[in-house]
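Re: weekly structure request thread

Next one in the queue (161 aa):
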Amino acid sequence: MKRSLIYAIVLTLNSTVIIAPSYANAGTDDGRVPHIDGNSQFPPTRWGIFRHTFRLHVPQNSKAVTQILVKVPDNVTISNNIQDIDVVDEKGQKINTNVSVNGKTILLAFAEPVAPNTKLEIDLKRIKRRNLGNGSVYSFSATEVGIDAEIPIGVAWFRTY
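Done, posted below.
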């Protein structure tokens, strides 16, 4: 009995030592590729017209971003009105963006490249979901200064409950 108690205590202490440091690590901003930080839907319901919001982060060690390409899922209908697409920075100031919609693809071309260490919010208004399915998955890619190729930067998933 005493031996099993000692083993349990040793195992617990070892687990605590191994697991605890992972909670103490601070997130760093040393990435090299822009990425999607998060997404949200308003209102959070199944039916109707929605606004989908995506948070994009251009890390400190990244190059400046010139374009963002958004591929819209098949089960979502977007507005063809470019006034329904807004891009703002972390301070809420509108970013000068040339928006073009071609079927299920949205191209956001920035008048001035988005500098590193910037967070953007992309709002797609008047979104309609055609069927429920399992949800909607948007995919994103970016073009950086000095690079002609599109770089995949992430996906955003809106799950249907």
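Residues 35-159 form a domain with the Immunoglobulin-like fold (CATH 2.60.40.740). The CA atoms of residues 137 and 157 lie 4 Å apart.
Next request, please.
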